Amino acid sequence: MAGGTVTRFAPSPTGPLHLGHAFAALTADRLADAGRFLLRIEDIDRSRCCPEYEALIAEDLHWLGLTWPQPVLRQSDRLPAYRAALDRLAELGLTYPCRCNRADIRAALSAPQEGAPRIGPDGPVYPGTCRHRSMDDADEGDAIRLNAARAVQHLRLGTLGFHDEGLAQDMPLSPAGFLTQIGDVVLARRGMGTSYHLSVVVDDAAQGITLVTRGRDLLDSTHIHILLQQLLDLPTPRYHHHRLIRDDAGKRLAKRDDARALCLYREQSMTPGQIRAMLGLL
Ligand code: GLU
């Protein structure tokens, strides 16, 4: 494989791309420099994804002047790879089935002895209600969680910290910090066979990504990804979390902010150069 930095832009086709996506894609392309910029379609949540949006993603990115190698990796084609990773973690005794829904978790956390719930990257840190359960009694209605306490005992390195190149800052986290601040994350969502965290880690390794670029909203998830890389013997790439594009009120743009959809700017005959200028990328 040719040397050089390999980056990726990994949108979910759940709505039109907006200015925040343009910034993420252009940043990934710029930081690939003389290496390779890849596109990956993150469509594991089939109920929310739609092929029309996937086609629009390619159109918008081409309009911005980006190109990428074919074929594009689509996560919905990768379920066997995620299954293999999950099986490996299960063989290590690091997983358990969980049937709690959000209301169950809220109720368990409101017990007086629990104190104020800690909020991790995926919401309240899971109180461990199903931790005693064995994979042998897993059924269709279960999610699969990581037993974080056991997982940290398997760490190859004593730390889950990383250096963020976007913030130019070290982001330390000890194994003990992982347990209190993050905890037993979901590896496979109910009926889905995988989760964002598991798929991203498996795919970044499979695609040979050497520099992960993404928004700072995902900064806290990176410790989870580093733990999974160590458990699965996968390399840890470099990380660059970039600033988020906000609306006039200072709120981060979300998929529903269709007013800032790239296709609308295109219809209004704006040029890619004007988009770059709006994003401060000239
Ligand atoms: N699919 C994620 C998103 O649309 C990005 C995941 C990543 O870059 O790790 O926000």
From TrEMBL:
Q: Which UniProt keywords apply?
A: Aminoacyl-tRNA synthetase, ATP-binding, Ligase, Metal-binding, Nucleotide-binding, Protein biosynthesis, Zinc
GO-annotated biological processes? glutamyl-tRNA aminoacylation
- EC assignment: the record states 6.1.1.-
Highest taxon listed in the record's lineage: Bacteria
In Gene Ontology terms, what is one molecular function of this protein?
glutamate-tRNA ligase activity
Q: Give the EC class as a word.
A: ligase
Task: Report whether Hydrolase shows up as a keyword of the record.
Answer: no
Q: Does the keyword ATP-binding apply?
A: yes
Question: Sorted alphabetically, which SUPFAM superfamilies does this protein's record hold?
Answer: Nucleotidylyl transferase
Q: Name one GO cellular component term.
A: cytosol
- Residues in domain Glutamyl/glutaminyl-tRNA synthetase class Ib catalytic? 6-279
For this chain, the family text in UniProt reads: Belongs to the class-I aminoacyl-tRNA synthetase family.
Q: What is this protein called?
A: tRNA glutamyl-Q(34) synthetase GluQRS
Q: Which organism is it from?
A: Paracoccus shanxieyensis
